[in-house]
Amino acid sequence: MTGSPAPRPVRRRPHGHLVGGYGLPGLAVLLFLGFSLALPHTFPTRENIASILSNQAVPAVLALGATLPIASGKFDLSLGYGLGLAHVVALRLVVGEGWPWPLACLAVVGGGAAIGAVNGVVVEFGRIDPFIATLGTGSMMYAATGWITGGARIVPGPDGLPAAFTGLYDSRVLGLPAPAFYVLAVAVALWLVLERLPVGRYLYVIGSNPRTAAMVGIPTHRYSVYAFAGSGLVAGFAGVLLAAQQQIGNPSVGLEYLLPAFVGALLGSTTIRPGRANAPGTVVAVAVLAIGLAGIGQLGARFWATPLFNGVTLLVAVGLAGYSVRRRLRTGAHA
């Protein structure tokens, strides 16, 4: 008579799984509650929430755009330059060339995708480090921005911009700023791409181990170009939103959005799906940054507090992102 088979060991998630996966959303809630207690008459108001949602829409969209190359293990440092170029081109086409604003917006978004694809080709087929390649192409975009504007602002005439164009940013839906719904739409689209379509799985494999991806037959160069093209497309859309928000073409705008975008994308890779760049995590990270910046601003912080906050958060985000990747690898090795 044989004894009963030994029970199979029960695999348990690490104790820190919930904290690692959902600690950042909890931090967002705690920050909001903390600033609401400290500033009860100004912070938890509907007007302040609407202002945060509206002001952080462009950084949030740009951070989502940065998520795609990061998923494939690359970085696109041209995003800030691309944002600045897109917004002046949109205004140039509408104000200077008299294009219908929907056609101008489509041209800008399509141009952003084309520029992103060029970035991908330079990186993948030119075999140039993505930091150097995108910094070089970004500098070229900045030069193009200066050439288009002549170094001066693009100012609409007496009639102003079409109301429907400015309404892209100024309008409200269900009592909330329309840009908040744009962020939600872009996040959902990227979530579908990265989590539900084969291209997303391929990008994650390429990002974790390009050699293995090539060995199993994934065309790594092609999908990396797709990631850069998608990033450029989203940056073009962010440029359209920036043009509708500012309503003046400023050749120096763009670079200040780059750091918050990377902070959001990298910090987002430490939550929801720790160790992987993901759209929901990026949205949560941007929310944490937005709440923190709005809170310290209302508390009377000096002008240098914002870059200090972004810089420190970037260092923390990079450290946590690396830790999340190593932890995921160790967990997989012991599974």
**Main β-sheet description:** 2 strands, antiparallel
CATH topology value: ABC transporter involved in vitamin B12 uptake, BtuC
Low-pLDDT residue intervals, each spanning 5 or more residues = none
Q: What share of residues is helical? A: over 70%
Strand content: under 5%
Structural class of the secondary structure composition?
Answer: mainly alpha
In total, how many domains does the architecture comprise? Answer: 1
Name of the level-1 CATH class: Mainly Alpha
Rg, Cα atoms, Å: 22 Å
Number of helices: 14
Strand order of the largest sheet: 1-2
Please tell me about this protein's structure.
This protein is mainly alpha-helical and 335 residues long. It has one domain (17-334): Orthogonal Bundle (ABC transporter involved in vitamin B12 uptake, BtuC), CATH 1.10.3470. 72% of the residues lie in helices and 1% in strands. The protein has helices at residues 17-38, 46-55, 57-71, 79-96, 101-124, 130-149, 163-170, 178-196, 198-208, 210-215, 220-246, 258-268, 279-298, 305-334; strands at 172-173, 176-177. A two-stranded antiparallel sheet has the order 1-2. Helix 4 (79-96) runs parallel beside helix 6. The longest helix is centred in the last third of the chain and has 30 residues, at 305-334.
